[in-house]
Amino acid sequence: MFSDKKQVLILAALLEAHGIQHVVLCPGSRNIALVHTLSAMPSFTCHAVTDERSAAFFALGLALQSGKPAAVCCTSGTALLNFHPAVAEAFYQEVPLLILSADRPARWIGQMDGQTLPQPNVFKSLVKASINLPEVANASDEAFCNRLVNEALLALTHRAPGPVHINIPISEPFFDTPVHTLPTVPVIQRLWGVRLDNALPELAHAFERATRRLAVVGQMPFATDWHRDVRTQLSESVCWVGEHLANHQAPEILLGTFDRLLAALSDEQRTTLAPDFLITFGGHIVSKALKQTLRQHPPQVHWHIDPQGRVVDLFGALTHVIEMEPTQFFSALLSHLSHSLANDYPHTWKRLAQALPTPHVDWSAIGATGRVLGALPPDTVLHLANSSVIRYAQQFTLSSTFTVHANRGTSGIEGSLSTAVGFAAADHRLNVMMIGDLSFFYDMNALLNVPKMGINHLRIVLLNNACGEIFHALPGLNLDERGRKFIAAEHHTTAKAWANDQGFHYEAVHSYDDLEATLPDFMSLEGNQPRLIEVFTNAEKDIQVLHAMKRTDQAALRNRL
């Protein structure tokens, strides 16, 4: 009855779930899988129109009459181009017109194959979204396809309605229809404006039914006081986790060492603690352990709160996009809760976090990081470079008075130092940059003219273990001589001459005693020079210390649940 092409089945199921009613079908062979599947579904009213130009305008009329999205489907090649006039009309008239185009597999584009041309993004600026579906071969492809279709269908009516294009590559054979039931597919809802207002009682009810509620706070602006309306009301019923980049001002609420905690938990403990209800807001998350845990144990409900209404499904479990400022949403939600929802779930997480021992490790990069972070005065601006440094820092608690920044938009090593210098040029508080050797030497031109610009309140901690340590630490990556040269980029470079030449006060550090001796002057705003301390450690020893620290944490948490 239905095609066996999984991308077609997913598309059909989500078209039905999102309430599409009218589908205009054009003749062809490449779209047979689509035509057979859609026409066999009683929830669709299908219309046969031969001429593609006319078909698209026919669908436009259906959408105009109903006020709801209508779909038009064609085969591959120039058939799709005949939709262009109607697509342009739908765009400027703000009509939710859905274009479904069958396509040849990407490998045949530009290879002199018949009825084949580059179909993705063919309508360019005349559509609100253009989606190219994968041919589904595994669970990862399936999740990706689900998200893409949801995202495309949500775009049809978001804010100003308009046309959306979904391109569907279909490989031969495509005549078989052996499937009798459609798959169960995750449906993402976007709630905003009046829709959100009307949905709040139902959302509150879902929140009340949950027992293991987890809120994950991603990277946030420096002055965002997102906790204000939830400090007392929700801290007893929700476990709040967030990295230093969340820039929280409520350490008593936010569990800041969760990355270290998750790394130490057994698989059984992770399963027991897995949430059934997840709320996320803010930007990027660094923790790989958190991503893996939530992807392996997806919650039943996942709300992502985003003022722009973006579909961000980081853990493959998204059910609702809440288009509102987080603080405003929590205030609205609280007004609809009928009773106290306190339970032991957040306290279980806190007890486990408190059971982690204070790290006391041999001289190493992570040990030096902990000492520096512990010596920072209040109201410091802390800049963290990517790769190992930001992960080291996450193992330690920080004062809520700090402002924390890192370039996590793309997470590359380039530009971390230059960004910190630019920030410090406009902010006269103590600015401390912690950075690894590869990041530093890649971007060391950032130090040019720093003293001449009067940025004497800049402090740089350079962790130099003569390579990209993170590449040594990656599981399964056993670096031979070539790997150490080309991947980890081993070197014998020091910043001393460059720092001195640029007018920095320079100190070399080889032990905890050296570090403790230099930190008081380093943290002081007295003097007329920026300062740089270069911390020398051994990469192999750094990795050994990390492993030993993890084993100590695992022993401390054993049998704690």
| CATH structural fold name of the largest domain | Rossmann fold
Shape: elongated
Overall pLDDT confidence = 90
CATH class of the largest domain: Alpha Beta
Q: Which structural class do the helices and strands define?
A: alpha/beta
Which percent band covers the strand fraction? 15-25%
Q: What does this entry look like structurally?
A:
With 561 residues, the protein is an alpha/beta fold. The chain folds into three domains: 6-176, Thiamin diphosphate (ThDP)-binding fold, Pyr/PP domains (Rossmann fold), CATH 3.40.50.970; 190-349, TPP-binding domain (Rossmann fold, 3-Layer(aba) Sandwich); 365-547, 3-Layer(aba) Sandwich (Rossmann fold), CATH 3.40.50.970. It is 37% helix and 16% strand. It contains 21 helices and 19 strands. The chain has helices at 6-17, 32-39, 52-66, 78-81, 84-93, 139-155, 193-209, 258-264, 267-273, 288-296, 326-334, 345-355, 365-375, 388-393, 416-426, 437-442, 469-473, 481-486, 496-501, 512-523, 539-557; strands spanning 22-25, 45-48, 70-74, 97-103, 129-132, 164-169, 189-191, 213-217, 239-242, 254-255, 277-281, 301-305, 320-322, 381-384, 403-405, 431-436, 458-464, 505-509, 531-536. It has a seven-stranded parallel beta sheet. A six-stranded parallel beta sheet has the order 2-1-3-4-6-5, with helices on both faces. The protein has a six-stranded parallel beta sheet with strand order 15-14-16-17-19-18, sandwiched between helices. Helix 16 links the parallel strand 16 (431-436) and strand 17 (458-464). Helix 3 runs parallel beside helix 5 and helix 8 (258-264) crosses helix 10. It starts with 5 loop residues before the first helix and ends with a helix.
